[in-house]
Amino acid sequence: MKPLVVDQVVKQYGDKTAVNGISLEVDRGEIYGLLGANGAGKTTTMRMVLGLIFPDEGKILYDGKPYSKEQLRRIGYLPEERGLYPKVKVSDQLVYLARLKGMSAADADRSLKQWLERFGVPEYYGKRVEELSKGNQQKIQFIATIIHQPQLLILDEAFSGLDPVNVELLKATVKELRDNGSTILFSTHRMEHVEELCRQITILRYGNEVLGGSLKEIKGRFPREKVRLAADGDIDGLERLPGVLGVKALEQGGWEIRIADEASGRGILRHAMAQAEVSRFEILEPTLNEIFIKTVGETHE
Ligand SMILES: Nc1ncnc2c1ncn2[C@@H]1O[C@H](COP(=O)(O)OP(=O)(O)OP(=O)(O)O)[C@@H](O)[C@H]1O
């Protein structure tokens, strides 16, 4: 039985349909990407999973059971708008939040110290939140999300505002939580993070699912329309080859060539090999970013 099943949920705000029959299932040890343009219905979906609002239609099951207060204790939520109290000490605040989730004060205190140590910031224990930089406040909020060892994690733009070192730190932590069996619903506009972390995704548009399934299988549905080519010398006439739609010389050397179909790629390789020693030739699969733009288009609110 899957830890999280969202089945045909619908949510209306007045006559506006924010979510229109979304279904998804997330397994243990899996990070599921929930994607979509601004206003597509991601936050509304996450709020329904959290039990903050209830679907007008459809159902959400946690280990096969409907929502209950007990379930809430097993969920960790990192909202996009961060919400720590600026004047309260990190230790007081996180122990309080962990106790609301059913942890004893002693266990919460021990766990907090371990996480602060692990994130390289043990000195934040006695600091007020407002004394920390924005990125470091975010690390604290991340600890607040996972301190009670939730089985189901809902992460909304988990890495925004962090420097690259801290992004890697939190990313490694999310992967570790996954490997230890957490069920993770992950929402972001950063497609490269989805490519790295998520096995399955749903892309929403105006509250509807426009693309869903395994990332690998979704990529297979889209044509490969780009060639990366590098050679030890110049190659003339690339733009005049059949099926070549555009040629861009890359800063780092070589070319990126837009092609009409994969068959045109073979003609490029033959042409290039006749003129120079080819050191790289690759027909690239589309990036998730490209797929997203193709699917969702420029339809932002
Ligand atoms: N409380 C509310 N009352 C009325 N309309 C709402 C409410 N919350 C969301 N909406 C509307 O529902 C739609 C979906 O909003 P939602 O916040 O779920 O989008 P989102 O995908 O999370 O967007 P973003 O990427 O900008 O965070 C939007 O059209 C929004 O205006």
From TrEMBL:
Presence of keyword Flavoprotein: no
Domain of life: Bacteria
MF annotations from Gene Ontology: ATP binding; ATP hydrolysis activity
Keywords assigned: ATP-binding, Nucleotide-binding, Transport
Record Pfam families: ABC_tran (PF00005), DrrA1-3_C (PF13732)
ABC transporter domain span: 4-231
Gene3D superfamilies assigned to the protein according to its UniProt record, in alphabetical order: P-loop containing nucleotide triphosphate hydrolases
Record carries keyword Chaperone: no
Alphabetized InterPro entries for the sequence: AAA+_ATPase, ABC_transporter-like_ATP-bd, ABC_transporter-like_CS, ABC_transporter_ATP-binding, DrrA1/2-like_C, P-loop_NTPase
Family: Belongs to the ABC transporter superfamily.
Name this polypeptide is given: ABC transporter, ATP-binding protein
Organism of derivation: Paenibacillus pasadenensis
